[in-house]
Amino acid sequence: MEFGWKLFLFLSFLNAVIEAIDLKIATDRAVQIVSDKYLSIAIDTGIIRHNWERLNFSSPKVESLARALSPCYLRVGGSEADFMKFSPDTHNVRFYNQSDLYMSDYYDNKFVNFTMFSNQFDELNNFVTKVGWSLIFDLNSLLREGGQWLPDNAKLLMDYTSQKGYKITGWELGNEPNSYKHHIGYSISGSQRAKDYSKLHSLLNQYPQWRNSVIIGPSTTQLSKTSAEKYFTEFLQTGGPDIVTNPTFHQYYINGREATIDQFMDIDILNSLMPEINKGNKIAKHPPYGKTWLGETGSAYGGGAPGLSNTYVAGFM
Protein backbone atom coordinates (compact mmCIF):
# COMPACT_ATOMS: atom_id res chain seq x y z
CA MET A 1 0.00 0.00 0.00
CA GLU A 2 2.88 2.33 0.82
CA PHE A 3 4.29 1.78 -2.69
CA GLY A 4 0.91 2.72 -4.17
CA TRP A 5 0.84 6.01 -2.28
CA LYS A 6 4.38 6.84 -3.38
CA LEU A 7 3.48 6.14 -6.99
CA PHE A 8 0.36 8.29 -6.70
CA LEU A 9 2.31 11.17 -5.18
CA PHE A 10 5.01 10.88 -7.87
CA LEU A 11 2.46 10.94 -10.69
CA SER A 12 0.66 13.85 -9.04
CA PHE A 13 3.96 15.73 -8.89
CA LEU A 14 4.60 15.10 -12.58
CA ASN A 15 1.12 16.35 -13.41
CA ALA A 16 1.79 19.53 -11.43
CA VAL A 17 5.05 20.44 -13.16
CA ILE A 18 4.11 19.51 -16.72
CA GLU A 19 2.54 22.41 -18.57
CA ALA A 20 1.14 22.54 -22.07
CA ILE A 21 3.34 24.59 -24.38
CA ASP A 22 2.10 26.02 -27.65
CA LEU A 23 4.91 26.03 -30.18
CA LYS A 24 4.48 28.06 -33.33
CA ILE A 25 6.95 27.89 -36.20
CA ALA A 26 6.90 30.72 -38.71
CA THR A 27 7.51 29.33 -42.18
CA ASP A 28 7.09 32.59 -44.07
CA ARG A 29 10.77 33.54 -43.87
CA ALA A 30 14.13 31.80 -43.60
CA VAL A 31 16.26 32.42 -40.53
CA GLN A 32 19.42 31.40 -42.38
CA ILE A 33 20.16 30.39 -45.97
CA VAL A 34 23.14 28.15 -46.57
CA SER A 35 24.94 27.19 -49.75
CA ASP A 36 23.84 24.08 -51.58
CA LYS A 37 27.43 22.92 -50.96
CA TYR A 38 27.20 23.60 -47.22
CA LEU A 39 27.87 19.96 -46.30
CA SER A 40 31.13 19.14 -48.05
CA ILE A 41 34.04 16.73 -47.81
CA ALA A 42 37.78 16.85 -47.16
CA ILE A 43 40.25 14.04 -47.77
CA ASP A 44 43.89 14.04 -46.77
CA THR A 45 46.59 14.52 -49.40
CA GLY A 46 48.40 11.67 -47.65
CA ILE A 47 46.25 9.09 -49.38
CA ILE A 48 47.80 10.17 -52.68
CA ARG A 49 51.19 9.18 -51.28
CA HIS A 50 49.67 5.75 -50.65
CA ASN A 51 48.03 5.74 -54.10
CA TRP A 52 44.51 6.40 -52.77
CA GLU A 53 44.89 3.57 -50.24
CA ARG A 54 41.43 1.94 -50.02
CA LEU A 55 39.56 4.66 -51.91
CA ASN A 56 38.51 2.87 -55.10
CA PHE A 57 37.36 5.45 -57.64
CA SER A 58 36.13 2.72 -60.01
CA SER A 59 33.79 1.17 -57.43
CA PRO A 60 30.11 1.50 -58.50
CA LYS A 61 29.15 1.69 -54.82
CA VAL A 62 31.57 4.54 -54.10
CA GLU A 63 30.39 6.36 -57.21
CA SER A 64 26.73 5.96 -56.29
CA LEU A 65 27.23 7.15 -52.73
CA ALA A 66 29.35 10.10 -53.87
CA ARG A 67 26.84 11.19 -56.50
CA ALA A 68 24.13 11.27 -53.82
CA LEU A 69 26.16 13.90 -51.92
CA SER A 70 26.38 16.22 -54.92
CA PRO A 71 26.61 19.17 -55.08
CA CYS A 72 29.49 19.58 -52.67
CA TYR A 73 33.09 20.70 -52.46
CA LEU A 74 35.84 18.12 -52.22
CA ARG A 75 38.87 19.66 -50.56
CA VAL A 76 42.03 17.60 -51.09
CA GLY A 77 44.58 18.90 -48.62
CA GLY A 78 46.17 18.50 -45.24
CA SER A 79 49.60 18.34 -43.69
CA GLU A 80 51.09 16.21 -46.47
CA ALA A 81 50.08 18.75 -49.12
CA ASP A 82 53.21 20.63 -48.05
CA PHE A 83 55.38 17.65 -49.02
CA MET A 84 53.84 16.80 -52.39
CA LYS A 85 55.20 17.71 -55.82
CA PHE A 86 53.39 17.14 -59.09
CA SER A 87 54.92 15.32 -62.06
CA PRO A 88 53.24 15.18 -65.49
CA ASP A 89 54.76 11.71 -65.93
CA THR A 90 52.77 8.54 -65.29
CA HIS A 91 53.89 5.94 -62.85
CA ASN A 92 52.77 2.58 -61.51
CA VAL A 93 52.51 3.15 -57.79
CA ARG A 94 52.31 0.43 -55.18
CA PHE A 95 48.84 0.16 -53.66
CA TYR A 96 49.01 0.51 -49.88
CA ASN A 97 46.47 -0.75 -47.38
CA GLN A 98 47.69 0.78 -44.14
CA SER A 99 45.19 3.20 -42.62
CA ASP A 100 47.25 3.54 -39.46
CA LEU A 101 49.99 5.25 -41.48
CA TYR A 102 48.09 8.54 -41.40
CA MET A 103 47.79 8.63 -37.64
CA SER A 104 51.40 7.60 -37.02
CA ASP A 105 52.63 10.12 -39.60
CA TYR A 106 50.72 12.89 -37.86
CA TYR A 107 51.80 12.15 -34.32
CA ASP A 108 55.40 11.20 -35.08
CA ASN A 109 55.96 14.00 -37.62
CA LYS A 110 57.21 11.49 -40.19
CA PHE A 111 56.47 13.70 -43.16
CA VAL A 112 58.41 12.87 -46.32
CA ASN A 113 58.49 14.41 -49.77
CA PHE A 114 56.58 12.48 -52.41
CA THR A 115 55.31 12.82 -55.96
CA MET A 116 51.78 12.90 -57.33
CA PHE A 117 51.89 11.57 -60.87
CA SER A 118 49.56 12.64 -63.65
CA ASN A 119 47.64 9.36 -63.71
CA GLN A 120 46.76 9.82 -60.04
CA PHE A 121 45.59 13.38 -60.69
CA ASP A 122 43.59 12.11 -63.67
CA GLU A 123 41.80 9.58 -61.48
CA LEU A 124 40.82 12.29 -59.02
CA ASN A 125 39.51 14.70 -61.65
CA ASN A 126 37.65 12.05 -63.61
CA PHE A 127 35.92 10.95 -60.43
CA VAL A 128 34.81 14.41 -59.26
CA THR A 129 33.55 15.19 -62.76
CA LYS A 130 31.58 11.95 -62.88
CA VAL A 131 29.86 12.47 -59.51
CA GLY A 132 29.32 16.23 -59.82
CA TRP A 133 31.64 17.44 -57.07
CA SER A 134 33.67 20.68 -57.09
CA LEU A 135 37.37 20.22 -56.38
CA ILE A 136 39.46 22.50 -54.15
CA PHE A 137 43.13 21.53 -54.28
CA ASP A 138 45.81 22.32 -51.72
CA LEU A 139 49.25 23.29 -53.06
CA ASN A 140 52.69 22.79 -51.51
CA SER A 141 53.74 26.02 -49.78
CA LEU A 142 57.09 24.70 -48.54
CA LEU A 143 58.73 24.88 -51.97
CA ARG A 144 60.71 27.99 -51.09
CA GLU A 145 63.89 29.90 -51.79
CA GLY A 146 65.19 32.80 -49.75
CA GLY A 147 62.04 32.70 -47.63
CA GLN A 148 59.79 33.16 -50.67
CA TRP A 149 57.31 30.68 -52.11
CA LEU A 150 58.34 29.16 -55.46
CA PRO A 151 55.26 28.74 -57.67
CA ASP A 152 56.98 26.69 -60.41
CA ASN A 153 55.50 23.32 -59.46
CA ALA A 154 52.07 24.84 -58.92
CA LYS A 155 52.30 26.30 -62.44
CA LEU A 156 53.27 22.88 -63.80
CA LEU A 157 50.14 21.42 -62.22
CA MET A 158 47.94 24.25 -63.49
CA ASP A 159 49.35 23.94 -67.01
CA TYR A 160 48.57 20.24 -67.00
CA THR A 161 45.10 20.85 -65.54
CA SER A 162 44.36 23.47 -68.18
CA GLN A 163 45.58 21.23 -71.02
CA LYS A 164 43.36 18.40 -69.82
CA GLY A 165 40.35 20.68 -69.43
CA TYR A 166 39.78 19.82 -65.77
CA LYS A 167 37.53 22.26 -63.94
CA ILE A 168 39.13 22.86 -60.56
CA THR A 169 36.88 25.15 -58.53
CA GLY A 170 39.33 26.42 -55.96
CA TRP A 171 42.85 26.49 -54.57
CA GLU A 172 44.61 26.56 -51.23
CA LEU A 173 48.25 27.09 -50.27
CA GLY A 174 49.66 24.99 -47.46
CA ASN A 175 48.10 23.63 -44.30
CA GLU A 176 48.05 24.88 -40.71
CA PRO A 177 51.08 27.18 -41.12
CA ASN A 178 50.89 28.37 -37.51
CA SER A 179 51.99 24.87 -36.45
CA TYR A 180 54.95 24.50 -38.83
CA LYS A 181 57.43 25.32 -36.09
CA HIS A 182 56.08 22.50 -33.95
CA HIS A 183 55.94 19.91 -36.71
CA ILE A 184 58.94 20.67 -38.93
CA GLY A 185 61.00 23.29 -37.10
CA TYR A 186 60.37 25.96 -39.75
CA SER A 187 58.31 29.14 -39.43
CA ILE A 188 56.38 31.23 -41.93
CA SER A 189 54.74 34.33 -40.46
CA GLY A 190 51.17 35.33 -41.14
CA SER A 191 52.31 38.39 -43.07
CA GLN A 192 54.67 36.28 -45.20
CA ARG A 193 51.89 33.79 -45.87
CA ALA A 194 49.79 36.69 -47.17
CA LYS A 195 52.62 37.53 -49.59
CA ASP A 196 52.68 33.89 -50.69
CA TYR A 197 48.97 34.13 -51.46
CA SER A 198 49.58 37.29 -53.48
CA LYS A 199 51.92 35.21 -55.64
CA LEU A 200 49.20 32.59 -55.95
CA HIS A 201 46.79 35.28 -57.15
CA SER A 202 49.30 36.41 -59.78
CA LEU A 203 49.71 32.83 -60.96
CA LEU A 204 45.97 32.16 -61.16
CA ASN A 205 45.43 35.38 -63.10
CA GLN A 206 47.47 33.85 -65.94
CA TYR A 207 44.60 31.41 -66.52
CA PRO A 208 41.22 32.90 -67.52
CA GLN A 209 39.30 30.04 -65.90
CA TRP A 210 40.78 30.76 -62.46
CA ARG A 211 40.77 34.54 -62.28
CA ASN A 212 37.64 34.36 -60.13
CA SER A 213 38.17 30.98 -58.53
CA VAL A 214 37.61 30.08 -54.91
CA ILE A 215 40.76 30.69 -52.83
CA ILE A 216 40.79 29.57 -49.20
CA GLY A 217 43.26 30.13 -46.37
CA PRO A 218 45.21 30.60 -44.17
CA SER A 219 43.89 27.27 -42.87
CA THR A 220 45.15 27.65 -39.32
CA THR A 221 44.48 25.27 -36.48
CA GLN A 222 41.53 25.97 -34.20
CA LEU A 223 41.05 29.57 -33.12
CA SER A 224 40.75 28.64 -29.45
CA LYS A 225 44.56 28.66 -29.52
CA THR A 226 46.13 32.09 -29.13
CA SER A 227 48.83 31.34 -31.72
CA ALA A 228 46.23 30.40 -34.31
CA GLU A 229 44.12 33.48 -33.58
CA LYS A 230 47.15 35.77 -33.94
CA TYR A 231 48.22 34.07 -37.18
CA PHE A 232 44.70 34.23 -38.65
CA THR A 233 44.47 37.93 -37.77
CA GLU A 234 47.94 38.84 -39.08
CA PHE A 235 47.34 37.05 -42.37
CA LEU A 236 44.04 38.82 -43.01
CA GLN A 237 45.23 42.25 -41.89
CA THR A 238 48.29 42.01 -44.14
CA GLY A 239 46.50 40.60 -47.16
CA GLY A 240 43.25 42.53 -46.88
CA PRO A 241 39.72 41.40 -47.78
CA ASP A 242 40.68 40.15 -51.24
CA ILE A 243 43.56 37.88 -50.23
CA VAL A 244 41.17 34.91 -50.08
CA THR A 245 37.57 34.46 -51.11
CA ASN A 246 36.90 32.59 -47.86
CA PRO A 247 39.06 32.77 -44.73
CA THR A 248 39.48 29.31 -43.21
CA PHE A 249 40.49 27.67 -39.98
CA HIS A 250 40.35 24.07 -38.79
CA GLN A 251 38.45 22.71 -35.82
CA TYR A 252 38.59 19.40 -34.00
CA TYR A 253 37.09 18.74 -30.59
CA ILE A 254 39.62 16.37 -29.04
CA ASN A 255 42.88 14.46 -29.49
CA GLY A 256 42.18 11.23 -31.35
CA ARG A 257 44.90 9.32 -29.57
CA GLU A 258 43.61 10.14 -26.06
CA ALA A 259 39.86 10.39 -26.70
CA THR A 260 37.31 8.68 -24.44
CA ILE A 261 33.64 7.98 -25.06
CA ASP A 262 32.69 10.37 -22.25
CA GLN A 263 34.32 13.24 -24.15
CA PHE A 264 31.99 12.62 -27.07
CA MET A 265 29.06 13.46 -24.78
CA ASP A 266 30.68 16.20 -22.71
CA ILE A 267 28.54 19.34 -22.97
CA ASP A 268 31.48 21.73 -22.58
CA ILE A 269 33.37 19.99 -25.38
CA LEU A 270 30.30 19.89 -27.62
CA ASN A 271 29.75 23.61 -27.06
CA SER A 272 33.35 24.55 -27.90
CA LEU A 273 32.77 25.05 -31.63
CA MET A 274 30.45 28.06 -31.54
CA PRO A 275 32.90 30.40 -29.73
CA GLU A 276 35.50 29.61 -32.40
CA ILE A 277 33.06 30.37 -35.21
CA ASN A 278 32.10 33.64 -33.52
CA LYS A 279 35.78 34.55 -33.12
CA GLY A 280 36.52 33.80 -36.78
CA ASN A 281 33.55 35.87 -37.93
CA LYS A 282 34.60 38.75 -35.69
CA ILE A 283 38.16 38.81 -37.04
CA ALA A 284 37.09 38.36 -40.67
CA LYS A 285 33.94 40.42 -40.61
CA HIS A 286 31.64 39.83 -43.58
CA PRO A 287 31.62 42.11 -45.52
CA PRO A 288 34.26 43.17 -46.53
CA TYR A 289 35.77 39.71 -46.05
CA GLY A 290 34.24 36.66 -47.64
CA LYS A 291 32.32 34.29 -45.40
CA THR A 292 34.53 32.27 -43.08
CA TRP A 293 34.68 28.53 -43.70
CA LEU A 294 35.73 25.54 -41.65
CA GLY A 295 38.41 24.14 -43.93
CA GLU A 296 38.64 20.97 -41.87
CA THR A 297 36.50 19.71 -39.03
CA GLY A 298 35.81 16.43 -37.33
CA SER A 299 35.42 14.78 -33.98
CA ALA A 300 39.11 14.16 -33.25
CA TYR A 301 42.38 15.23 -34.84
CA GLY A 302 45.16 12.90 -35.85
CA GLY A 303 43.04 10.60 -38.00
CA GLY A 304 40.13 10.34 -35.58
CA ALA A 305 39.58 8.29 -32.44
CA PRO A 306 39.72 4.55 -33.22
CA GLY A 307 36.47 2.79 -32.39
CA LEU A 308 34.70 6.08 -31.67
CA SER A 309 34.95 8.53 -34.59
CA ASN A 310 33.35 5.98 -36.92
CA THR A 311 30.47 5.15 -34.58
CA TYR A 312 27.09 6.59 -33.59
CA VAL A 313 28.44 8.64 -30.70
CA ALA A 314 30.51 10.78 -33.08
CA GLY A 315 27.25 12.09 -34.52
CA PHE A 316 26.88 14.34 -31.48
CA MET A 317 29.90 16.28 -32.70
UniProtKB/TrEMBL annotation:
- Transmembrane residue ranges: none
Q: Where is the signal peptide?
A: 1-20
Q: What is this protein called?
A: Heparanase-like protein
Q: Keywords on this record?
A: Signal
**GO MF annotation, one:** hydrolase activity, acting on glycosyl bonds
Cited Gene3D superfamilies: Glycosidases
Q: Which GO terms describe its cellular component?
A: extracellular matrix; extracellular space; membrane
Instruction: Give the family per the record.
Output: Belongs to the glycosyl hydrolase 79 family.
* Recorded superkingdom: Eukaryota
